[in-house]
Specification:
Number of helices: 6
CATH architecture: Alpha-Beta Complex
Shape: globular
Number of domains: 1
Helix content: 25-40%
Largest sheet: 6 strands, mixed
Distance between the termini: 15 Å
CATH class: Alpha Beta
Strand content: 25-35%
CATH topology: Maf protein
Bound molecules: inosinic acid
Strand order of the largest sheet: 2-1-3-4-5-6
Number of strands: 6
Structural class: alpha/beta
Length: about 180
């Protein structure tokens, strides 16, 4: 069985990929090493910087992932700052910022990086369009899941099963690309 180290401290992300590889010959193993998330404009740069940082201390093939929520009415905020914003103003703060707007479209983006020792990472990108709710709904998932409804659905990510969320989500799509690559 192929071992794949996933550099993350986020148990939600770990559970999502483990659900996806259940039927494959791949075992995803968590490595909570941590890396600095630099302040840049796009997730690709954050992921590539993270890879360089980890490669200095870890000598096996690994994956890491960076994601963000880009809200149109807020000109793409919180975007690359999604983690910081989640732990500061949180969901309530985001809903307050959007109190008086009917423009509720948003985009979730996910960038997975696969890296082998001493080589440049390969990136896999997934996106999911949707809308921001008026109130928080649901108890599943993590992060912004209770306020995000993917296009073509009426439930928030937090009201879906893990499998259902994976089918729609930015990360599910990026993982599909990554797994296609690993199968080859
Ligand atoms: P990071 O990729 O760990 O930096 O995540 C950025 C922020 O976006 C974190 O606060 C997460 O909670 C949030 N986030 C990332 N992916 C998702 C998701 O699938 N659903 C909800 N929130 C997410």
């Amino acid at each position: 069985m192929k071992k794949l180290y996933f550099i993350t401290g986020n148990m939600g992300k770990l559970a999502e990929i483990q659900e996806r590889v259940k039927t494959l010959d791949i075992k995803v193993i968590q490595k909570d090493l941590g890396y600095p998330e630099i302040q840049v404009e796009n997730l690709e740069d954050v992921a590539e910087y993270g890879v360089k940082h980890i490669q200095k201390q870890f000598n096996e093939p690994f994956i890491l992932e960076d994601a963000g929520l880009f809200i149109d009415d807020l000109d793409g905020f919180p975007g690359v700052y999604s983690k910081y914003v989640f732990y500061t103003i949180g969901l309530k703060g985001i809903l307050k910022l959007m109190e008086n707007t009917t423009k509720r479209s948003a985009l979730f983006r996910s960038v997975y990086a696969y890296a082998e020792p001493n080589s440049k990472p390969i990136l896999f990108v997934g996106e999911c369009k949707g809308t921001i709710t008026i109130k928080e709904r649901g108890t599943g998932g993590f992060g912004y899941d209770p306020i995000f409804v993917p296009e073509g659905e009426s439930k928030t990510f937090a009201e879906m099963s893990r499998e259902e969320k994976n089918r729609y989500s930015h990360r599910g799509k990026a993982v599909d690309e990554l797994l296609d690559f690993l199968k080859k």
